[in-house]
Amino acid sequence: MLAFTWNLRGQREALRLACAYLADKGSTLVCLQEMPEQVTEQEIRTWT
Amino acid sequence: MTDPRVVMLVSRDVRIKTPAAIFIPGVLRDAAERMVGAEVHVPHVGDLQIVGVHFPDKRNLPEGPPRERVVGTLSDQMRFFWSGGPLIVLGDFNAHPFDREIALRTMLWATRDRLELVEERDPIPREDAGMPIFHQGQTYASRDDLKTVKSFQKLKPLYNPMWRWLGERHAHPRGTYYRKHDDSIVTWQCLDQILVSPDLAERVERVDILDRLGPQLLIDPKRATMTDIYGDHLPVELTLKERTEEVLP
Fold first, then answer.
1. Residues B1-34, buried b or exposed e (16+ Cβ, 10 A)?
2. Which of B49, B54, B237, B243 to mutate against chain A (most A CBs within 10 Å)?
3. Residue B178 CA to chain centroid, in angstroms?
4. CB-hemisphere CA count at 13 Å for A47?
5. Distance CA A18, CA A23 (A)
């Protein structure tokens, strides 16, 4: 099992990268700080 | 969502039992954005509590009594939330593992050495006693009422495996945060951390600071600093050994 944390500093590209990285990691708990503005749950699911 | 400070996500196989269970009434204007918690069930691991944090930046809230009050309150809330079982606390603490807000027994009390995890202490009342407190689904009129709650009677330390990253490094990554200014003690700092409860300490397989995600480098190899695209923090990843002796439902 993984626990993952990243302060994204509002960077949308960082969120996209994190979601792609975590997509095939199995059981994962993720904490993100300073999310980019106006990110929807649907976007996160699409990226993962 | 509109620029929240802390967001928790879980993979699809993790069942959320109680979301966003931390609430601080009237103590900090933005406290709910600085700490969130959830109770989850992870296959082959079991039930866990997780707490995500984003402590105040020292440039906005320097070391001193106001900062200690804010961070102390956040630490208290984490303690109220924690039922004493498996717990993971992770996020941007804006403090080194050896700083007061992380290491002090009256703050988060996250220790370097697993040898210290057998210790425990009584909770110390703070000046804000008497405020309504939300804890594990119930509201208590004051801190005094929490004395009857079993989970609040004795406090245990947390284990901070990020200490493993504090020695001399001969290659990147050398910390989680790159401080560009000249007034810092160390350029690469370890502000992003993952802490675990004593019962998870022996199951920490590794903790990594990631300078790349997949094929993508997060550090500019020419300047040995952060890229401009991914911010000035690096991700931290903790690998926990799963329980192999039994398959949990």
1. eeebbbbbbbbeebeeeeeebbbbeeebeebbeb
2. B237
3. 20
4. 18
5. 8
Where does residue A46 rank: exposed (0-12), middle (13-18), buried (19+ CB within 10 A)?
A: exposed
Q: Return the ∠ at Cα B104 (arms to B40 and A31), rounded to 5°.
A: 30
Which letter, b or e, does each residue of B51-64 get, where b requires 16 or more Cβ atoms within 10 Å of its Cβ? bbbbbbeeeebeee
Q: How many CB atoms lie within 10 A of CB B201?
A: 17
In the Cβ-directed half-sphere of B217, how many Cα atoms lie within 13 Å? Answer: 11
Which residue carries 């208290």 as its tokens?
Answer: B76
Q: So what's the ipTM on this one?
A: 0.95
Residues of B in contact with A40 (CB under 8 A): 1
Q: Quick check: A9 and B10 CB within 8 A?
A: no
Nearest CB to B236; choose among A5, A34, A40:
A5
Give the model confidence (pLDDT) of B85-128 as tens digits.
999 999 999 999 999 999 998 889 999 999 999 998 866 455 55
Going by C-alpha positions, the residue among A20, A40, A3, A28 that lies closest to residue B11 is: A28
Closest CA to B194 of B46, B48, B14: B48
pLDDT tens-digit profile of A1-48? 999 999 999 999 999 999 999 988 999 999 999 988 888 878 887 776
